[in-house]
C-alpha cells in the first residue's frame, strides 16, 4: 500500500455544506474559524457548557478559549443537545480530548452516524482500550472506514487565531472526501494537503505528544537545545520502528504531517504537552500540573496506551516512551529516568 498524496479531482461530486463540530476548546474554536472563512460552510457547534453557549449566541466568541476570535453568527449555530447538533449534517468533526470522547458521544447511536463523514482532529487514543479514535468510531458506531478521516498538522490553534500561515494535512482512504475537506478548509492563511495514510498520521499525532512531554521534562531539568535535538532525532527512529510494527505501509516520515507536526509540538511555546512536561521536570506532580494548566495534555493518556501496545511486540524498543511512562505512571524521578535515557540516545 502506498500513501502518496491525492491529486486534485475536477470531477469530485461530494460536497460538505454543514459540519457538526463536537467540542468547545481552543482547537474546536480554531477549526470553526477555519471552516467559516470560505463563507459557505455552516457549523452546528456542540458544547457541554450552557453558559458558554449563551455567551457565544450573545457575543459571537468563545469566552474560555481564543476569545479574540470573532465567529460568524450567520454560519455558526451552538447546540446544547448533541443529537440535534449532528442531525442533518454532512460531516461530524470530533475535537474533544480522547479521554472524554466516549462520554461526549454516549447519547448517540449508529443511526446518528449513518451516511455521515466523520473527521477526527483528536491527537490521542481511547484510554484502556488502547485504540485510535477513528478505530473506535468505526467499531462503536458502524461507520465504514471509507467514511472516516483525520486532520493532522502542523498547526496550533493560537496561530490560527492570529491568522499566521499554517498547514493542515487531511487523511482518508476516500479520495473524494479528503479533497473536499481540503477544499473547504483552505484559505488565505491555511494551506492543505491530502494523504492516504490515515492510521499513520493518527499514530504520529499521538506519539509526537509523548515526545513533546519528554522535551518539556528535559527543559524543566535544565537540559539544553543540544540534548533536545538529539531527543527529537531519536524520536523519529522510535516512531519509524513503531509504525513498522503496527501499520506498515510506504510513507515519507519527513513530510509535514509527520516530522512537521512533531517539530512544532516539541519546540513551540503553544504546545500544551511540552508545557506539561516542563512542569513535571521542574518538580510538579502530575495532578498539580494538570490543575494549573486547566487544559488536557493528550500525551499523558497516550503514553500509557503506546507503552502497552509496544510491550505486545517483541523486540520493539521505545526508550523515550518508556522513560515518560515511568515518570508519569511509576513516579520515578525525572532526574533518575533521564540519566538512564541519555545513555540510550545516539
Number of domains: 2
Mean pLDDT level: 92
Poorly predicted sequence stretches spanning 5 or more consecutive residues = none
CATH topology of the largest domain: Rossmann fold
Essential attributes:
2 domains; two-stranded antiparallel sheet; N-(1-d-carboxylethyl)-l-norvaline Dehydrogenase, domain 2; alpha/beta
Plain-language structure description:
- This protein is α/β, with parallel strands linked by helices and 346 residues long.
- It folds into two domains: 179 residues, NAD(P)-binding Rossmann-like Domain (Rossmann fold, 3-Layer(aba) Sandwich), CATH 3.40.50; 143 residues, N-(1-d-carboxylethyl)-l-norvaline Dehydrogenase, domain 2 (Orthogonal Bundle), CATH 1.10.1040.10.
- It is 49% helix and 13% strand.
- The strands form two sheets. An eight-stranded mixed beta sheet has the order 3-2-1-4-5-8-9-10, sandwiched between helices. It has a two-stranded antiparallel sheet with strand order 6-7.
What is the gist of this entry?
With 346 residues, the chain is an alpha/beta fold. The chain has two domains: 18-196, NAD(P)-binding Rossmann-like Domain (Rossmann fold); 200-342, N-(1-d-carboxylethyl)-l-norvaline Dehydrogenase, domain 2 (Orthogonal Bundle), CATH 1.10.1040.
Topology:
Layout: E1 18-22, H1 26-36, E2 42-46, H2 50-59, E3 76-79, H3 82-86, E4 91-94, H4 101-105, H5 110-113, E5 117-120, E6 125-126, E7 131-132, H6 133-140, E8 148-152, H7 157-161, E9 166-172, H8 175-185, E10 190-195, H9 198-221, H10 225-246, H11 256-267, H12 272-281, H13 286-293, H14 298-311, H15 319-329, H16 334-342
Parallel strand pairs: 1-2, 1-4, 2-3, 4-5, 5-8, 9-10
Antiparallel strand pairs: 6-7, 8-9
Helix pairs in contact: 9-10, 9-11, 9-12, 9-14, 9-15, 12-13, 14-15, 15-16
